[in-house]
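Kindly review this protein for my students:
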Amino acid sequence: MAAEPPSSPVPSLRHCKARRVFEVKAKKAVVSSWGVATKNVTIWECPVSGLRFREAKPIEELKEYYVAEYHEKMTGGQRASPRGLAYRKENETRVDHLQRYVPTGRVLDVGCSQGDFALAMNRAGLEAHGLDISPEACKTSKAVLGDDHVYCGTLEELAPGLRSQFSAVTMMDVIEHCSNVVELLCSIHDVLQPEGILFLRTPTLSSPFHLVGNLSYRLSLGLYKTALFKLYHAEHLYFFNEPSIRTLLDDCGFDTLEIATDPLCWENFRTAELKQGPFGNLLLSGIYFAGRAFGRGHGMKVVARRRATHDAQGEG
């Protein structure tokens, strides 16, 4: 007997049963740019909002992905390396965007990894704190930001002691990794000051890479799976489009102020993704520049303001 489809993770749409859009297995695991191996892809979709998701995983399982090597590959490790310099340039661009809304103040970077984004905020005049579930990442962040500016654990665990302490909370490519996105957003609501700002960046289903990857799988009648496994790699649990992130934020007590496309800068994309051989690199570069030409990119930046109350607290 087939398993019962899960409900939509969006609180106001929990009455909706999700539909399965992919259930794919590979003979050999496909490894992401950050070293995570993916062998099974089962993706569900909320029929109203379009949010795609995996079924939740326990935090202990998620922690296994975020070893020191994961953070080194993502950030470039040595900041003078090409990857490190590209990552730093991207961070500076995003800090500039944040400061349109929060020019000064105390900011918490959730999923801070090795502290690079928080450090960029400090350099711009903000008072940045970091939080991560990885002990290895927290150790590196403390060396950069100071012991008293880094929290190790989940925000859900730590939020009661941080209530109303921050002018802004940032999440750079983090929300898609979280086991329970509603609990996370409710905790962010709790640690923000009245009318505080949430600034996040996440991949988007509107990306040309998703379009090409999904088409390549369907047009090949399921024979070509690599692109699908690259898009839906194992540590990502949620895959948003604009309507779904807007509805989710509204349900969790936030007014969305802006959703903007966020294509990776070329240096970041080149150092992160162009490792597929001459033909693969040429194809990816073509998709990248086509997306830029049509105002689309790999991700989206989202800015939202905390409302006084929210109805999703305690749900999920």
Remarks:
- The chain has a mean pLDDT of 91.
- The chain is about 35% helix and 25% strand.
- The longest helix spans residues 82-98.
- The two ends are 26 Å apart (CA to CA).
